[in-house]
């Protein structure tokens, strides 16, 4: 049963909530139990992801930049995707330290690190949507009108980075280093007394324009692309698309669960879904788990290129040969003489 103090705590949580996660009875009458993973295990995971992402994405950038002549439009998009993952990977040591000790880095770094995390996500899905459009035009409409305009592709990439910054700006503006009573410091958005309204605006709108619309665009473009490939019995060209499809599927596998849980959390905090202590605990644990899965994504694309993308492996071997680390006879024995047409993924003449 509740006493008067508990009822006042609940009233304070419901109507004067500052945007903090409900940590302890000072913020909610619920007894919260959100520890799903041992924090040292999470720190170890972040360390491995950091090293793999740093090495893998650096190699991807190197291979694409090395293939100036044969670089395709898809490669330009994947280059930007690797840059986004690399920038995010550089923040992982800070996230790992915060997982163990709480947020001890102050408000400025809280804003910057949160901004990089969101920019990585939004730029990733927007770049994948552009790749789907490029493949749709090349295969379904058999046109190179857009893909041959390299300067236009550069402007598209700049536009994607700009839109990603705009969608991520609320986190930069409202995130602060906060120190709740009886809890470790946190990096969280401080939205004042109108938390419910602001949270609806700052979460739902970016989700619609930065996730739902690009996702629907990818489903539309890849649906027609696959239909055309199968209808024309273009088996060899279909195999050439495997890397792109793998990149898209891995992105959705890593980030879709987090965004679905975040949407559920938003609906609960804005009282569209009834909030109970059990649901609050479940959602908080799910957010922790799916966020780790999202962080894992930054190191996975290079692994896809290495295991599925033959042109990427060939490009890397050519760089080693150019630096004298392997012999040209080794390249000749493996029939590696030049890039087929794209340094990582898809022949541009599909």
UniProtKB/TrEMBL annotation:
<comment type="subunit">
    <text>Interacts with IL8. Interacts with GNAI2.</text>
</comment>
<feature type="transmembrane region" description="Helical">
    <location>
        <begin position="77"/>
        <end position="98"/>
    </location>
</feature>
<feature type="transmembrane region" description="Helical">
    <location>
        <begin position="121"/>
        <end position="140"/>
    </location>
</feature>
<dbReference type="GO" id="GO:0019959">
    <property type="term" value="F:interleukin-8 binding"/>
</dbReference>
<dbReference type="GO" id="GO:0007204">
    <property type="term" value="P:positive regulation of cytosolic calcium ion concentration"/>
</dbReference>
<dbReference type="GO" id="GO:0009897">
    <property type="term" value="C:external side of plasma membrane"/>
</dbReference>
<dbReference type="GO" id="GO:0004918">
    <property type="term" value="F:interleukin-8 receptor activity"/>
</dbReference>
<keyword id="KW-1015">Disulfide bond</keyword>
<feature type="transmembrane region" description="Helical">
    <location>
        <begin position="41"/>
        <end position="65"/>
    </location>
</feature>
<dbReference type="InterPro" id="IPR001355">
    <property type="entry name" value="Chemokine_CXCR1"/>
</dbReference>
<keyword id="KW-0807">Transducer</keyword>
<keyword id="KW-0675">Receptor</keyword>
<dbReference type="InterPro" id="IPR000276">
    <property type="entry name" value="GPCR_Rhodpsn"/>
</dbReference>
<dbReference type="GO" id="GO:0019722">
    <property type="term" value="P:calcium-mediated signaling"/>
</dbReference>
<dbReference type="InterPro" id="IPR050119">
    <property type="entry name" value="CCR1-9-like"/>
</dbReference>
<dbReference type="GO" id="GO:0016493">
    <property type="term" value="F:C-C chemokine receptor activity"/>
</dbReference>
<keyword id="KW-0472">Membrane</keyword>
<comment type="function">
    <text>Receptor to interleukin-8, which is a powerful neutrophils chemotactic factor. Binding of IL-8 to the receptor causes activation of neutrophils. This response is mediated via a G-protein that activates a phosphatidylinositol-calcium second messenger system.</text>
</comment>
<protein>
    <recommendedName>
        <fullName>C-X-C chemokine receptor type 1</fullName>
    </recommendedName>
</protein>
<dbReference type="InterPro" id="IPR017452">
    <property type="entry name" value="GPCR_Rhodpsn_7TM"/>
</dbReference>
<comment type="similarity">
    <text>Belongs to the G-protein coupled receptor 1 family.</text>
</comment>
<feature type="transmembrane region" description="Helical">
    <location>
        <begin position="152"/>
        <end position="174"/>
    </location>
</feature>
<dbReference type="GO" id="GO:0030593">
    <property type="term" value="P:neutrophil chemotaxis"/>
</dbReference>
<dbReference type="GO" id="GO:0019957">
    <property type="term" value="F:C-C chemokine binding"/>
</dbReference>
<dbReference type="GO" id="GO:0031623">
    <property type="term" value="P:receptor internalization"/>
</dbReference>
<feature type="transmembrane region" description="Helical">
    <location>
        <begin position="208"/>
        <end position="230"/>
    </location>
</feature>
<feature type="transmembrane region" description="Helical">
    <location>
        <begin position="242"/>
        <end position="261"/>
    </location>
</feature>
<dbReference type="Pfam" id="PF00001">
    <property type="entry name" value="7tm_1"/>
</dbReference>
<keyword id="KW-0145">Chemotaxis</keyword>
<keyword id="KW-1003">Cell membrane</keyword>
<dbReference type="InterPro" id="IPR000174">
    <property type="entry name" value="Chemokine_CXCR_1/2"/>
</dbReference>
<keyword id="KW-0325">Glycoprotein</keyword>
<keyword id="KW-0297">G-protein coupled receptor</keyword>
<keyword id="KW-1133">Transmembrane helix</keyword>
<dbReference type="GO" id="GO:0006955">
    <property type="term" value="P:immune response"/>
</dbReference>
<feature type="domain" description="G-protein coupled receptors family 1 profile">
    <location>
        <begin position="56"/>
        <end position="305"/>
    </location>
</feature>
<keyword id="KW-0812">Transmembrane</keyword>
């Amino acid at each position: 049963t509740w006493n008067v103090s508990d009822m006042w705590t609940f009233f304070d949580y419901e109507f004067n909530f500052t945007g903090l996660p409900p940590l302890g009875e000072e913020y909610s009458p619920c007894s919260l139990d959100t520890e799903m993973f041992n924090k040292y295990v999470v720190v170890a995971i972040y360390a491995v992801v950091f090293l793999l992402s740093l090495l893998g994405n650096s190699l991807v950038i190197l291979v694409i930049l090395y293939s100036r002549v044969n670089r395709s439009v898809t490669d330009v998009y994947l280059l930007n995707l690797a840059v986004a993952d690399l920038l995010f990977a550089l923040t992982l040591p800070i996230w790992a330290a915060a997982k163990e000790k709480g947020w001890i880095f102050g408000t400025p770094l809280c804003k910057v690190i949160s901004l990089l995390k969101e920019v990585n996500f939004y730029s990733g899905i927007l770049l994948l949507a552009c790749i789907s459009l490029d493949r749709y035009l090349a295969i379904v409409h058999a046109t190179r009108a857009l893909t041959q305009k390299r300067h236009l592709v550069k402007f598209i990439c700049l536009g994607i980075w700009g839109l990603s910054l705009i969608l991520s700006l609320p986190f930069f503006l409202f995130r602060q280093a906060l120190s709740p009573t009886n809890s470790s410091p946190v990096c969280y958005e401080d939205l004042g007394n109108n938390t419910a309204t602001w949270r609806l605006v700052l979460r739902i709108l970016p989700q619609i324009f930065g996730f739902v619309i690009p996702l629907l665009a990818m489903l539309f473009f890849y649906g027609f692309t696959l239909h055309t490939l199968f209808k024309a019995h273009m088996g060899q060209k279909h195999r050439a698309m495997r890397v792109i499809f793998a990149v898209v599927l891995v992105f959705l596998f890593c980030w879709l669960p987090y965004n679905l849980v975040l949407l559920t959390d938003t609906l609960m905090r804005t009282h569209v879904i009834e909030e109970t202590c059990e649901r609050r605990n479940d959602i908080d644990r799910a957010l922790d788990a799916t966020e780790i899965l999202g962080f894992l994504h930054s190191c996975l694309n290079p692994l896809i290129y290495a295991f599925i993308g033959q042109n990427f492996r060939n490009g890397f071997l050519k760089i080693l040969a150019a630096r004298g680390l392997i012999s040209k006879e080794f390249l000749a024995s493996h029939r590696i003489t030049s890039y087929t047409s794209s340094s990582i993924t898809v022949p541009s003449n599909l």
